[in-house]
Amino acid sequence: MAVTIRRLEESDEVEDFDCGDEPLNNYLKRHAWTNQEKVFIGVTYAAVDESAHRTVLGYFTLATSSVPRERFPKKYVRGLPPYDLPLILLARLAVDKRFSGKGLGHALLSEALKITLRVADEVGCRCIITDAYPDKVGWYARYGFIPLEGTAATSPQKMFLDVRTIRRASSIDSFLPERA
Amino acid sequence: MPPAVKEKSKSAAALPAKVPSPRKLKFQADLAPSEDSMVRILKTELQMTSNTDFLTDALALLRWAVSERKRGHHIISESSTGERKILLFPRLERVAPEVTLPHVDIRWTDKELESLAELASGQPADPTDALIRAMRQ
Protein backbone atom coordinates (compact mmCIF):
# COMPACT_ATOMS: atom_id res chain seq x y z
CA MET A 1 0.00 0.00 0.00
CA ALA A 2 1.52 3.31 -1.06
CA VAL A 3 0.49 6.14 1.23
CA THR A 4 0.49 9.85 0.52
CA ILE A 5 0.31 12.45 3.27
CA ARG A 6 -1.13 15.82 2.28
CA ARG A 7 -3.41 18.56 3.55
CA LEU A 8 -6.97 17.48 4.23
CA GLU A 9 -9.29 18.23 1.31
CA GLU A 10 -13.00 18.92 1.48
CA SER A 11 -13.91 15.90 -0.63
CA ASP A 12 -11.89 13.45 1.48
CA GLU A 13 -13.91 10.52 2.81
CA VAL A 14 -13.80 10.64 6.57
CA GLU A 15 -17.16 9.20 7.64
CA ASP A 16 -15.84 5.62 8.00
CA PHE A 17 -12.73 6.67 9.89
CA ASP A 18 -12.42 4.85 13.20
CA CYS A 19 -9.30 4.99 15.33
CA GLY A 20 -11.10 3.63 18.37
CA ASP A 21 -11.27 6.99 20.10
CA GLU A 22 -14.49 8.90 19.70
CA PRO A 23 -13.13 12.44 20.26
CA LEU A 24 -10.42 11.84 17.62
CA ASN A 25 -12.96 10.36 15.18
CA ASN A 26 -15.36 13.20 15.82
CA TYR A 27 -12.68 15.83 15.32
CA LEU A 28 -11.83 14.52 11.87
CA LYS A 29 -15.45 14.14 10.82
CA ARG A 30 -16.92 17.31 12.25
CA HIS A 31 -14.23 19.89 12.91
CA ALA A 32 -10.98 19.31 11.03
CA TRP A 33 -12.07 20.88 7.75
CA THR A 34 -13.80 23.86 9.37
CA ASN A 35 -10.87 24.49 11.68
CA GLN A 36 -8.49 24.36 8.74
CA GLU A 37 -10.34 26.41 6.14
CA LYS A 38 -12.79 28.62 7.99
CA VAL A 39 -11.55 29.48 11.45
CA PHE A 40 -7.83 28.81 10.92
CA ILE A 41 -7.04 27.16 14.21
CA GLY A 42 -5.42 23.98 12.95
CA VAL A 43 -4.19 22.41 9.72
CA THR A 44 -4.94 18.72 9.30
CA TYR A 45 -2.77 16.44 7.20
CA ALA A 46 -4.34 13.22 6.00
CA ALA A 47 -2.72 9.93 5.03
CA VAL A 48 -4.49 8.52 1.99
CA ASP A 49 -3.97 5.34 0.01
CA GLU A 50 -2.68 6.31 -3.41
CA SER A 51 -5.01 3.80 -5.06
CA ALA A 52 -8.08 5.10 -3.18
CA HIS A 53 -7.25 8.74 -2.95
CA ARG A 54 -10.15 10.02 -0.95
CA THR A 55 -10.21 7.60 1.98
CA VAL A 56 -8.42 8.93 5.04
CA LEU A 57 -6.37 6.24 6.80
CA GLY A 58 -4.83 8.48 9.44
CA TYR A 59 -4.30 12.12 10.22
CA PHE A 60 -2.56 14.67 12.37
CA THR A 61 -3.32 18.31 13.13
CA LEU A 62 -0.78 21.07 13.64
CA ALA A 63 -0.99 24.63 14.88
CA THR A 64 1.51 27.19 16.07
CA SER A 65 1.55 28.70 19.52
CA SER A 66 3.85 30.69 21.74
CA VAL A 67 4.52 31.24 25.40
CA PRO A 68 4.97 34.85 26.53
CA ARG A 69 8.41 35.28 28.07
CA GLU A 70 7.00 36.85 31.20
CA ARG A 71 5.10 33.66 32.01
CA PHE A 72 8.30 31.69 32.53
CA PRO A 73 9.83 31.46 36.02
CA LYS A 74 12.55 34.08 36.39
CA LYS A 75 15.30 31.59 37.13
CA TYR A 76 15.04 30.17 33.59
CA VAL A 77 14.50 33.38 31.65
CA ARG A 78 18.22 34.09 31.30
CA GLY A 79 18.70 30.87 29.35
CA LEU A 80 15.95 31.74 26.89
CA PRO A 81 15.89 34.17 23.97
CA PRO A 82 14.51 37.62 24.90
CA TYR A 83 11.24 36.97 23.08
CA ASP A 84 8.13 34.87 23.41
CA LEU A 85 8.89 31.20 22.86
CA PRO A 86 7.41 30.06 19.53
CA LEU A 87 6.38 26.44 19.26
CA ILE A 88 4.36 23.99 17.21
CA LEU A 89 1.49 22.06 18.71
CA LEU A 90 0.92 18.54 17.45
CA ALA A 91 -2.69 18.66 18.50
CA ARG A 92 -3.90 15.29 17.28
CA LEU A 93 -2.54 12.16 15.62
CA ALA A 94 -4.67 9.13 14.89
CA VAL A 95 -4.65 6.04 12.69
CA ASP A 96 -7.70 4.09 11.54
CA LYS A 97 -7.85 0.75 13.41
CA ARG A 98 -8.01 -1.15 10.12
CA PHE A 99 -4.55 0.16 9.23
CA SER A 100 -2.84 0.07 12.62
CA GLY A 101 0.42 -1.84 12.92
CA LYS A 102 1.52 -0.90 9.40
CA GLY A 103 3.82 1.94 10.37
CA LEU A 104 1.29 4.63 9.51
CA GLY A 105 1.70 6.38 12.88
CA HIS A 106 5.45 6.50 12.28
CA ALA A 107 4.89 7.95 8.79
CA LEU A 108 2.47 10.57 10.10
CA LEU A 109 4.80 11.63 12.92
CA SER A 110 7.69 11.70 10.48
CA GLU A 111 5.78 14.12 8.24
CA ALA A 112 4.73 16.25 11.22
CA LEU A 113 8.36 16.57 12.31
CA LYS A 114 9.50 17.47 8.79
CA ILE A 115 6.86 20.18 8.62
CA THR A 116 8.07 21.39 12.02
CA LEU A 117 11.58 21.78 10.63
CA ARG A 118 10.27 23.65 7.57
CA VAL A 119 8.27 26.00 9.78
CA ALA A 120 11.31 26.47 12.00
CA ASP A 121 13.33 27.41 8.91
CA GLU A 122 10.69 29.76 7.51
CA VAL A 123 9.22 31.51 10.51
CA GLY A 124 11.06 30.15 13.53
CA CYS A 125 9.97 27.81 16.30
CA ARG A 126 11.82 26.30 19.20
CA CYS A 127 10.06 23.04 19.93
CA ILE A 128 7.09 20.82 19.22
CA ILE A 129 4.62 20.03 21.96
CA THR A 130 2.12 17.20 21.90
CA ASP A 131 -0.75 16.16 24.16
CA ALA A 132 -0.36 12.41 24.57
CA TYR A 133 -2.89 9.99 25.96
CA PRO A 134 -1.36 8.07 28.90
CA ASP A 135 -1.05 4.86 26.85
CA LYS A 136 0.80 6.72 24.06
CA VAL A 137 3.43 8.43 26.23
CA GLY A 138 5.86 5.54 25.68
CA TRP A 139 5.34 5.68 21.91
CA TYR A 140 6.17 9.39 21.74
CA ALA A 141 9.10 8.90 24.14
CA ARG A 142 10.69 6.54 21.61
CA TYR A 143 11.01 9.54 19.29
CA GLY A 144 12.57 11.64 22.04
CA PHE A 145 9.51 13.48 23.31
CA ILE A 146 10.02 14.31 26.99
CA PRO A 147 7.01 14.49 29.36
CA LEU A 148 6.57 17.90 30.97
CA GLU A 149 6.06 17.88 34.71
CA GLY A 150 2.90 19.33 36.16
CA THR A 151 0.25 18.09 33.74
CA ALA A 152 -3.04 17.61 35.57
CA ALA A 153 -3.94 13.96 36.12
CA THR A 154 -7.14 14.38 34.13
CA SER A 155 -5.42 15.99 31.11
CA PRO A 156 -3.37 14.41 28.34
CA GLN A 157 0.36 14.42 29.06
CA LYS A 158 2.15 17.38 27.48
CA MET A 159 5.42 16.27 25.88
CA PHE A 160 8.32 18.31 24.50
CA LEU A 161 10.74 17.78 21.64
CA ASP A 162 13.43 20.36 20.89
CA VAL A 163 13.71 21.52 17.27
CA ARG A 164 17.50 21.36 17.67
CA THR A 165 17.18 17.63 18.37
CA ILE A 166 15.00 17.15 15.29
CA ARG A 167 17.47 19.12 13.19
CA ARG A 168 20.34 17.02 14.46
CA ALA A 169 18.41 13.84 13.64
CA SER A 170 17.76 15.06 10.11
CA SER A 171 21.46 15.68 9.53
CA ILE A 172 22.67 12.29 10.74
CA ASP A 173 23.47 10.04 7.83
CA SER A 174 25.10 7.15 9.68
CA PHE A 175 23.75 3.71 8.95
CA LEU A 176 20.90 2.50 11.13
CA PRO A 177 19.45 -0.97 10.57
CA GLU A 178 15.77 -1.00 9.72
CA ARG A 179 13.56 -2.08 12.58
CA ALA A 180 12.27 -5.65 12.37
CA MET B 1 52.42 79.96 26.82
CA PRO B 2 50.23 80.46 29.96
CA PRO B 3 48.96 77.21 31.50
CA ALA B 4 45.27 78.20 31.19
CA VAL B 5 45.58 78.38 27.44
CA LYS B 6 47.28 75.00 27.41
CA GLU B 7 44.42 73.49 29.37
CA LYS B 8 41.89 75.01 27.02
CA SER B 9 43.57 73.58 23.96
CA LYS B 10 43.77 70.12 25.63
CA SER B 11 40.07 70.02 26.40
CA ALA B 12 39.24 71.20 22.91
CA ALA B 13 41.26 68.32 21.51
CA ALA B 14 39.35 65.84 23.71
CA LEU B 15 35.95 66.81 22.31
CA PRO B 16 34.45 64.01 20.19
CA ALA B 17 34.22 64.56 16.48
CA LYS B 18 30.83 65.90 15.53
CA VAL B 19 28.63 63.05 14.30
CA PRO B 20 26.42 64.13 11.44
CA SER B 21 22.75 63.58 12.21
CA PRO B 22 21.03 61.15 9.81
CA ARG B 23 19.56 62.92 6.83
CA LYS B 24 15.83 62.93 6.53
CA LEU B 25 14.65 61.52 3.28
CA LYS B 26 12.19 63.38 1.12
CA PHE B 27 9.41 61.25 -0.27
CA GLN B 28 7.51 62.40 -3.29
CA ALA B 29 4.74 60.48 -4.97
CA ASP B 30 2.66 61.09 -8.06
CA LEU B 31 -0.90 60.43 -7.06
CA ALA B 32 -3.93 60.26 -9.29
CA PRO B 33 -6.63 62.76 -8.31
CA SER B 34 -8.72 59.98 -6.79
CA GLU B 35 -5.79 58.79 -4.67
CA ASP B 36 -4.99 62.34 -3.62
CA SER B 37 -8.59 62.74 -2.59
CA MET B 38 -8.44 59.47 -0.65
CA VAL B 39 -5.36 60.67 1.23
CA ARG B 40 -7.12 63.90 2.16
CA ILE B 41 -10.24 62.06 3.35
CA LEU B 42 -8.20 59.62 5.41
CA LYS B 43 -6.16 62.43 6.95
CA THR B 44 -9.36 64.17 7.93
CA GLU B 45 -10.85 61.00 9.40
CA LEU B 46 -7.68 60.25 11.32
CA GLN B 47 -7.33 63.91 12.35
CA MET B 48 -3.90 64.19 10.81
CA THR B 49 -2.47 67.38 9.46
CA SER B 50 0.85 66.38 8.01
CA ASN B 51 1.75 64.05 5.19
CA THR B 52 4.72 62.86 7.24
CA ASP B 53 2.44 61.61 10.03
CA PHE B 54 0.21 59.98 7.46
CA LEU B 55 3.10 58.19 5.81
CA THR B 56 4.62 57.16 9.15
CA ASP B 57 1.37 55.56 10.29
CA ALA B 58 0.75 53.90 6.94
CA LEU B 59 4.27 52.52 7.06
CA ALA B 60 3.76 51.14 10.58
CA LEU B 61 0.55 49.45 9.50
CA LEU B 62 2.09 47.92 6.40
CA ARG B 63 5.12 46.80 8.34
CA TRP B 64 2.88 45.03 10.85
CA ALA B 65 0.87 43.39 8.05
CA VAL B 66 4.05 42.12 6.40
CA SER B 67 5.39 40.70 9.66
CA GLU B 68 2.11 38.93 10.40
CA ARG B 69 1.88 37.45 6.92
CA LYS B 70 5.52 36.40 7.08
CA ARG B 71 4.65 34.37 10.16
CA GLY B 72 1.87 32.73 8.18
CA HIS B 73 -0.87 34.56 10.05
CA HIS B 74 -4.00 35.70 8.22
CA ILE B 75 -5.34 39.22 8.65
CA ILE B 76 -9.02 38.99 9.35
CA SER B 77 -11.78 41.45 10.08
CA GLU B 78 -14.70 40.26 12.16
CA SER B 79 -18.07 41.98 12.23
CA SER B 80 -20.20 42.29 15.34
CA THR B 81 -22.24 39.32 14.09
CA GLY B 82 -19.14 37.16 13.75
CA GLU B 83 -18.83 37.39 9.97
CA ARG B 84 -15.19 37.16 9.01
CA LYS B 85 -13.34 38.51 6.00
CA ILE B 86 -9.75 37.65 5.18
CA LEU B 87 -7.49 40.26 3.70
CA LEU B 88 -6.05 38.96 0.44
CA PHE B 89 -3.52 41.44 -0.81
CA PRO B 90 -1.35 40.10 -3.63
CA ARG B 91 1.82 41.85 -2.51
CA LEU B 92 1.39 40.54 1.02
CA GLU B 93 0.92 37.00 -0.28
CA ARG B 94 4.43 37.22 -1.74
CA VAL B 95 5.91 37.24 1.75
CA ALA B 96 3.72 34.46 3.15
CA PRO B 97 5.64 31.27 3.93
CA GLU B 98 4.88 28.07 2.06
CA VAL B 99 3.82 26.29 5.21
CA THR B 100 1.18 28.24 7.04
CA LEU B 101 -0.07 27.04 10.36
CA PRO B 102 -2.63 28.86 12.47
CA HIS B 103 -1.84 30.12 15.93
CA VAL B 104 -3.60 28.81 19.03
CA ASP B 105 -3.32 29.44 22.75
CA ILE B 106 -2.37 26.54 24.98
CA ARG B 107 -3.38 26.30 28.61
CA TRP B 108 -0.35 25.68 30.79
CA THR B 109 -0.02 24.93 34.45
CA ASP B 110 2.75 26.81 36.28
CA LYS B 111 4.63 23.56 36.77
CA GLU B 112 4.38 22.73 33.05
CA LEU B 113 5.81 26.13 32.17
CA GLU B 114 8.66 25.62 34.60
CA SER B 115 9.37 22.23 33.08
CA LEU B 116 9.15 23.67 29.55
CA ALA B 117 11.48 26.54 30.43
CA GLU B 118 14.00 24.16 31.94
CA LEU B 119 14.01 21.97 28.82
CA ALA B 120 14.02 24.85 26.33
CA SER B 121 16.82 26.69 28.09
CA GLY B 122 19.01 23.61 28.41
CA GLN B 123 21.07 21.65 25.93
CA PRO B 124 19.02 19.67 23.40
CA ALA B 125 18.82 15.92 23.89
CA ASP B 126 20.50 13.59 21.45
CA PRO B 127 18.12 12.20 18.83
CA THR B 128 16.83 8.69 19.39
CA ASP B 129 17.13 5.97 16.75
CA ALA B 130 13.38 6.18 16.10
CA LEU B 131 13.65 9.93 15.50
CA ILE B 132 16.58 9.50 13.14
CA ARG B 133 14.56 6.91 11.19
CA ALA B 134 11.56 9.21 11.12
CA MET B 135 13.61 12.05 9.67
CA ARG B 136 15.12 9.76 7.08
CA GLN B 137 11.78 8.35 5.89
CATH class of chain A: Alpha Beta
How far apart the termini of chain B lie comes to 85 Å
Radius of gyration of chain B: 28 Å
Mean residue pLDDT of chain B: 80
Low-pLDDT segments of chain B: 1-13
The structural class of chain B is mainly alpha
Which chain pair shows the most residues in contact? Answer: A-B, 59 and 44 residues
Task: Output the keywords.
heterodimer, A: 180 residues, alpha+beta, Aminopeptidase, 7 strands, globular, B: 137 residues, mainly alpha, two-stranded antiparallel ribbon, 4% strand, elongated, disordered N terminus
Could you explain the architecture of this structure?
The complex is a heterodimer of chains A (180) and B (137). Chain A has helices spanning 22-37, 74-77, 104-122, 137-142, 163-171, and strands at residues 3-7, 43-49, 52-67, 85-95, 127-132, 146-147, 157-162. With 180 residues, chain A is α+β, with helices and mostly antiparallel strands. Chain A has one domain: Gcn5-related N-acetyltransferase (GNAT) (Aminopeptidase, 3-Layer(aba) Sandwich). In chain A, strands 1-2-3-4-5-7-6 form a seven-stranded mixed β-sheet. The longest helix of chain A is centred in the middle third of the chain and has 19 residues, at 104-122. With 137 residues, chain B is mostly helical. In chain B, 50% of the residues lie in helices and 4% in strands. Chain B contains six helices and two strands; from the N terminus they run αααββααα. Chain B has a two-stranded antiparallel sheet. The N and C termini of chain B lie far apart (85 Å). Chains A and B meet through strand 3, strand 4, helix 3, strand 7 and helix 5 of A and helix 5 and helix 6 of B.
